[in-house]
Specification:
22 helices; 67% helix; elongated
Length: 409
């Protein structure tokens, strides 16, 4: 076993108690720098890096005490940091005495975490133990407190900050039946605890029972987390089609439609990308236009045009697509630019300016010139703006001179 040597950590001096003001961005930057420093050391000195990771987790919550956490950004940054450093601590090749010392230090930090920032550390406690034996010891230590909290009068609180740590340890120790029994005896039935039961059933090979248990544990706000775990279990069991049909779309929601598609496509390489896109489009009735960019990236331009015509699509997205293809595919560019003008005239788009309108018209006419259909295109534009809707009037006023219309007052 390797022993942790002395190391001068740059982040340590920066993470003094109440070191940061109220702004979250400087604190987030320091957190990211600390994680980078730890990961860099881990490449050559894993034990030293693990010691640094423990020190970081001890210091991070007190340092953030005055930071404005209302946006959730600082909490997300800490959670990302925990995800990054926990494996470094868990995999460090150290003797039992060193690991126990680390665990005691982390436990003290977890107990003192009143805001809390490192609450998620409990979910990783079984991993941090480093072995089933150590995890089992911690489960024995924590289980009585979990039972006491579950039996207490709800008016008196009944909360124990180590519940997730105990369940995590039982899972890591392979004590699945005890884990399920402890969950069933709890006064409250909620997903964060019952998710451990799902994993326990899956670990015992009872996959169908695990899925049923998860579905029965799903509360109004738990659907995505339940779907993620069920998908993970079915994929691990080799039941790929079932995982895709039942959970793929809900479990892989990303920040953009294109990112959602890419996430699913990476996870299910055997599925036809066109089929994935079709399923995603069907899952969002009324929002088909928002899949325009994904269809375009896949080279499905005819489908992209149909999507842009079926429901609102961001005019700037359409303008960029028309610009990119006006030379190599003028027919596509023409229809896309006209769709942009249509949605602008119907009031869609964020912070729309005259420039957005002129760009859409420019690309439409450039494509029309190539195709030899300028009069027909101008007539289609006039038809799009020939209403009394406020945004149509705005578009008509912007293009009045170019369309040969009298100025409106």
């Amino acid at each position: 076993m390797t022993k942790a040597g002395r190391h001068r950590w740059t982040f340590a001096a920066r993470f003094r108690a109440r070191a940061f003001g109220w702004r979250s961005q400087p604190a987030i930057k320091r957190i990211e720098e600390a994680v980078s420093e730890i990961k860099k050391v881990a490449r050559k000195e894993p034990v030293v890096a693990a010691e640094g990771a423990v020190r970081f987790l001890e210091k991070v919550s007190p340092a953030l005490e005055r930071v404005d956490s209302s946006s959730g950004a600082i909490g997300a940054a800490v959670n990302r940091a925990i995800d990054a450093v926990v494996p470094i601590i868990a995999r460090a090749p150290v003797d039992a005495k060193t690991r126990q010392r680390w665990l005691e230090r982390l436990w003290a930090a977890h107990e003192a975490d009143t805001i809390p920032y490192i609450e998620a550390l409990g979910d990783a406690w079984g991993e941090l133990c480093g072995s089933p034996e150590v995890a089992s010891e911690w489960a024995d230590r924590l289980a009585p407190f979990v039972e006491m909290a579950s039996r207490s009068d709800p008016k008196l609180g009944g909360f124990f900050h180590g519940t997730s740590a105990c369940l995590s340890c039982l899972l890591a120790a392979g004590r699945y039946e005890e884990l399920l029994d402890l969950i069933e005896r709890a006064r409250l039935r909620w997903w964060p605890d019952r998710g451990y039961g799902v994993r326990a059933l899956a670990a015992m090979g009872r996959v169908d029972e695990a899925i049923e248990y998860a579905e029965a544990s799903c509360g109004p706000s738990d659907a995505i987390r339940v779907a993620c775990l069920c998908e993970e279990i079915l994929l691990a069991a080799g039941r790929i089609e079932e995982a895709y049909d039942r959970y793929a779309i809900l479990a892989n929601q990303a920040t953009t439609r294109l990112a959602t598609f890419r996430t699913i496509a990476r996870k299910y390489p055997s599925k036809d990308p066109v089929e994935i896109l079709a399923d995603l489009i069907r899952s969002t009735p009324g929002d088909e236009g928002k899949w325009f960019a994904t269809a375009r990236r896949l080279g499905l331009r005819d489908l992209a045009v149909r999507l842009a015509d079926r429901s609102p699509c961001d005019p700037r997205t359409l303008n960029r697509a028309a610009r990119d293809h006006v030379a190599d595919d003028p027919s596509f560019a023409l229809e896309v630019a006209l769709a942009s003008l249509r949605w602008l005239a119907e009031g869609w788009g964020y912070d729309v300016t005259d420039l957005d309108v002129h760009e859409a018209y420019d690309y439409a006419m450039k494509a029309a010139t190539i195709l030899g259909c300028e009069p027909q295109t101008r007539a289609r534009v006039l038809e799009l703006v020939a209403t009394d809707r406020a945004q149509a009037v705005f578009v008509r006023q912007v293009l009045a001179a170019r369309l040969g219309l009298p100025e409106e007052t």
